Structures are given as C-alpha cells and as structure tokens.
Amino acid sequence: MNKKIAIIGSGNIGLSLAKGLVKADFAQAGDIILTRRNINHLKSFAEAGFVVSNNNNQAVSNADVIILAVLPQQLNAVLDEISSSIDSKKHLVISVISGVSCVAVREKLGDDVEVIRVMPNTAIAIGQSMTCLASDNASDENIISVTKMFETVGSVVKINEDLMTSATALCACGIAFFLRAIRAASQGGVEIGFHADEALKMAVQTAKGAADLLLLHGTHPESEIDKVTSPKGCTIAGLNEMEHNGFSSSLIKGIKLSALKAGNLYTKES
Ligand SMILES: NC(=O)C1=CN([C@@H]2O[C@H](COP(=O)(O)OP(=O)(O)OC[C@H]3O[C@@H](n4cnc5c(N)ncnc54)[C@H](OP(=O)(O)O)[C@@H]3O)[C@@H](O)[C@H]2O)C=CC1
Ligand SMILES: O=C(O)[C@@H]1CCC=N1
What we know:
This protein has twelve helices and eight strands. It is an alpha/beta fold. The protein folds into two domains: 5-161, Rossmann fold (3-Layer(aba) Sandwich); 174-262, ProC C-terminal domain-like (ProC C-terminal domain-like fold, Orthogonal Bundle), CATH 1.10.3730. Helix 6 (140-151) links the parallel strand 7 (129-134) and strand 8 (154-158). NADPH dihydro-nicotinamide-adenine-dinucleotide phosphate binds at residues 8-14, 35-38, 56, 69-72, 74, 77-78, 96-98, 119-122, 172. It is found in: Cytoplasm. NADPH binds at residue 56.
C-alpha cells in the first residue's frame, strides 16, 4: 500500500498491528507513523525504521489512514487535539478502541469523516488475528480496502456495529482466556510429573492441534471430542470432572461479563 498510516496511541495493540502490517509486507516501516506521549518507549521501533512522534497533529497531517489506538478514557483528549487536522476528503479513520461508536468519533471529528471500527487481537503481530469490522458510514470501497488490509494479518469478519462489544469479549479478550487455559493445563501437567517448561510446550502444541483440527476439518468441537473420549476412558472422566466444576459455565460467564464491561468503557465526558 502506498498510503501512509498514523497509529495514534502506540501501545500494546497499536504496536502489534504495526509489526503485523510490516511482517505481512502490507506496509514499509517508514510508511507507518507511531505516536505516544512518551516516545522513549518507541526507541526499538525507531531503530527498526518506523517514524515515531509525540506530535499527533503532525502525524495526522502526514498520513492518509489514521488508526486510533489509545485507551477509551484517553480518547476525548486525542480527538479534541486532532480534530482540526482531520480532512474528511483525505483521511480515513479506523478505531480499534473498545466501546466507542463510529458516531461518537464523528461527533468530535466531523460528520463527514468516514470511520471504520475494527476489533483485532494481539495475534495480529504474527498475522493470526481474528478481526471484526463495522462501520455506519464508510464507503464500500473503503470497507473493502480495510478488510483487505486486515486480511493480510489474520481473518476478518464484517459485523453489525451493535455486536462490536461482543466481538471485543470473544476475540480480543479471548486471547487472554485461551492463554490462561493453556497456562492452567501446563500447571496440571507439572502436578502429574512434567517439568514446567516441557509441560508448557506440551500444553501449547496440544491447544494448537485442537484449534487446527477445527480450522482444517471444519468440524464441531463436540465431534472432535467424541473421537478422544473412549468409553469408560480417562478423557471423559477428566472432562466431566471439569464440567462438574463449571468449566464451560465459567468461560461463558466470563465472556458475558467482558462484553458488558466493554460496552461501558467510554463516556463522552471522560
Ligand atoms: N490490548 C488489546 O489486546 C486490544 C486493545 N484494544 C483497544 O485498543 C486500545 C489500546 O489498548 P492497549 O494497546 O491495550 O493500551 P495501551 O495502554 O498499551 O496503549 C495505549 C497507548 O496510547 C498512548 N497514548 C495515551 N494518550 C495518548 C495521547 N494523547 N497521544 C498519543 N498517544 C497516547 C499511550 O502511551 P503514552 O502514555 O506514552 O502516551 C499508550 O502507549 C484500547 O482502546 C483497547 O480497548 C482493542 C483490541 C485489542
Ligand atoms: O482489556 C481491554 O479493555 C482491552 C480491550 C480488548 C482487549 N483488551
């Protein structure tokens, strides 16, 4: 892509995205401007060829695509700061910020600015994000081009904007949920005889195998589970014990709470 990208708020997700786009050859590091207030934390990115800055307005002026990636509670200050530099004819605004509608962004930046909400996860750094995308005013052309952009760093699903907080819980927070499950499995592995490093390696590869079975076979989890659970066997014994202790229920309840929280992260007054 020849367009310049400014990532306003280059923290965990902003930097994961920047790394992923360069790794995927979608952009050159020199075409990505990374901003944050404390640019000392961006030294390694500057050394890798990214443009780093603590001047949001300058970054906006020098870019075509503006990616908002600050925390919800930091957003209003940023929008007030950059609104005068935003040109609706030149700029496409992408927001990865949880719980902030396209309308809320436009209220600060101007009615005619095209805004696309995108919800990636940190696996974007390695081209494995599950990214959800929604907009209420972007042109088909811009939706297609942003879809293509995020498809270079994972899978993309276009959804209705009212499901964006649900997507946040399932996909963005979901990375942490599955990581904790892997960690717990490795701790179980240590209790039954493995050293921590080998237990973790075994748990990680087993989790990857389980996910790949579903992706490559296109099957339902229960159908793959049925192949593991021998009658009177050890798998069904362990699985049922986990369910008696609320395994599925606790995952479902956690996802519901995260979705609720995701919808309440931002207030116009903050
Ligand atoms: N982490 C994740 O997995 C995901 C996060 N999100 C969303 O992305 C957003 C960022 O999350 P995350 O990356 O975790 O948060 P971080 O706190 O890691 O990143 C936010 C960054 O914004 C910078 N920042 C704050 N104020 C300003 C400002 N005025 N101008 C420029 N930069 C600023 C901060 O740096 P400094 O203090 O130096 O300015 C910081 O590096 C959130 O809205 C979150 O909901 C979405 C999907 C996944
Ligand atoms: O925890 C959070 O609020 C952010 C949004 C999704 C992932 N991290």
